[in-house]
Structures are given as C-alpha cells and as structure tokens.
C-alpha cells in the first residue's frame, strides 16, 4: 500500500470507496449516513487543486482509501477520511492521517482537527487511539464552530458528535490551538 496525491482520474473511485465505507453505519442504525451521497467531483476537485487530497492505493495503483483536508482556524482539518471495508484494519486510515500530519507540519500547522461521531467505534474512539483529544465547545476556533454549525444544519447532530484535535510536534504557533486566532 502506497499513499500518493490523489489525481483527477481517481475521483470516481474515491466516491466508490466512500459509498462502501458508509455501509457499516447501517448496522448501527445510521442508514441516513450510509445513504449519504459522497463528496461530488466539484468538491473533490477543489481539494485536489488545493493539494489537500491523498489516496491510499493498491498494487494496481487503484484507490482503496482517501483523505481530503481543509485549513480551519489556521490548522489542517480532516474533512473526510475513508477506507474501503475490504481493506480495513491494515492501518491505512492511520497512514493517511500521518501523510496529512507531515504536510501540515511542513506548512507550520500546530495541529490537526476533525469532527466525528462520538460513539461510532471507527470514529472518535479510533481517533483517540491516533492521538486526537476531544475539544470542549469553548476550545473551538470560529471556523471550527462554523463547521459544527453546518453539520448540525445537515442533521448530523441526531447522533452525538465531537470536535477533536491532535497537536503536531514541530508545528508553528503551538499556543491556543487556533493557529494564531485569539
């Protein structure tokens, strides 16, 4: 398994990975999440152009997982990370997170952030094992608060959600965690 920058030709396969990765939510009574449409080509292309999209590829160079990111409050923010269930439990998600961490450090980001379901085993509990810690509402920067508001508007708060942060050694501005926003 290798991680590389995602490419335009990968976009339909990234969407397939996302659909497959959503299926396990059905067993938790979260069919709406399983049925949610993956990010569209326009959104994925925006991440590609920003240099914030990576694919984990198999021996045929076909994506089996991917990560897209944004900059939120001056920190690298995981917008989506998904691994096809056929390739789960092989540390692919962790490798994608580490690729983003390397990219973020190179650009002086003090941390990674993300939002996720609090009680889904492969969400918040998994991210805790990857070094993320839950943020209290008052610890969220203004842009991360806006992300959470948007999620609530989309109905994602039907299930408990949390914002999480992982400090990066060697990142710049390791102060309040908001990348200099005070």
Automatic annotation (TrEMBL):
It comes from the Bacteria. Residues 1-151 form the N-acetyltransferase domain. Keywords: Acyltransferase, Transferase. SUPFAM superfamilies: Acyl-CoA N-acyltransferases (Nat). InterPro entries: Acyl_CoA_acyltransferase, GNAT_dom. Gene3D superfamilies: 3.40.630.30. GO terms for molecular function: acyltransferase activity, transferring groups other than amino-acyl groups. PROSITE patterns: GNAT. This is GNAT family N-acetyltransferase.
């Amino acid at each position: 398994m290798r991680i590389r920058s995602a490419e335009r030709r990968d976009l339909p396969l990234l969407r397939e990975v996302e659909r497959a990765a959503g299926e396990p939510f059905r067993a938790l009574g979260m069919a709406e999440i399983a049925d949610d449409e993956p990010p569209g080509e326009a959104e994925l292309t925006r991440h590609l152009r920003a240099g914030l999209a990576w694919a984990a590829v198999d021996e045929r160079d076909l994506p089996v997982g991917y990560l897209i990111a944004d900059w939120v409050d001056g920190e690298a923010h995981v917008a989506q990370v998904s691994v096809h269930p056929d390739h789960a439990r092989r540390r692919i998600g962790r490798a994608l997170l580490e690729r983003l961490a390397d990219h973020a450090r190179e650009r002086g980001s003090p941390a990674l952030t993300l939002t996720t379901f609090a009680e889904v085993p492969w969400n918040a509990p998994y991210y805790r094992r990857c070094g993320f810690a839950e943020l209290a509402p008052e610890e969220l920067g203004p842009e991360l608060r806006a992300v959470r508001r948007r999620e609530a508007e989309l109905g994602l708060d039907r299930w408990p959600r949390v914002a999480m942060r992982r400090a990066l050694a060697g990142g710049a501005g390791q102060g309040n965690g908001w990348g200099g926003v005070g």
